[in-house]
Specification:
alpha/beta, Rossmann fold, Dihydrodipicolinate Reductase, domain 2, 2 domains, 6-stranded parallel beta sheet, 15 strands, 35% helix, globular
Length: 353
Amino acid sequence: MTNSARSQDSPIRLGLVGLGYWGPNLLRVLAEMPEVEVRYICDHDDVQLQRYAHRHPHAGATTSFDDLLADDDVDAIVIATPIFTHAELASRSLAAGKHTFVEKPLAASSAEAGELIGTATRSGLVLMCGHTFLYSPPVRAVKGLLDRGELGDIHFISSSRVNLGLHQRDVSVVWDLGPHDFSILLYWLGQAPVSVRAVGRDSIVRGIPDVAFIDLTFPGGVLAHVELSWLAPSKLRRTVVVGSERMVVYEDGGMEPLRVFDHGVVYRDPQTFGEYHLSYRTGDIVSPKLDNAEPIALELIDFLSLIRSGDARPGQAELARDVIDLIEATETSMREDGVQIAVSDIRAMADGG
């Protein structure tokens, strides 16, 4: 039976490649979904493969990615492999007519991401990137506050994502942690920054930056500051959104992950210098009730829904490419000692402009 002939009532048959850090989490959730048949699990490490084959005996275990591509009954492929393999594996998956889910980031360059999006669009296939935080209840709650204008005009956003390790051997802290904050900012504000300025340092492994301080300027003047580090005494995932009417603190993993502060500053435009006056408003602090749904499950449900509906929704993949533009702009600025980089220039170079 071909993918196009698959009944809406039939389970979506998929293969998962990559059983390292994040793949097992995806496998756990997929295996619990009644509308899914995990037809294959794939990894080049046979020991790791057999470990999960024992837990999932109904899935075919293979070290060959070609086995997934050659099976016409496979509707989709989920890729959770190292970053530098994403573009090649996703390209081959799409070429074989498979809907494709790729863990973040979508590819190792904006140019590669653009090619993948083009292939998926021409083929009418779903291409989705696993920016899991976009499905987090606190992140979605902040999006709702912003869309309803409850925070007023946004002045700035400050984010810290730091911990002690784990150092990566092949990518910088920007490629490792940056996609989380960049995707959240793009989702919340609904637009890409105009420019990026960043500084960083390779404190431990030469040539692999492990700390970065990044400033982003958005249209309309909104500023965002992102701190990323593998060198901190404790783990911190904290974002502050400051608006003219209210302020929000989002702490991933905290007892109260979201707090809304009815705080602000009121400025009366003076007629004379002597009339200069500021008043500070301190109101309630509210911790909104949030859903307890697991973000990874929500994003996979979305992926499956897109497959069934035939809605490729290219905007999701485009956001994933915007994230890579910001990573490349950040690393360019870091290499050039903090010079301001226009994000549009990064996209133009990727497109051969």
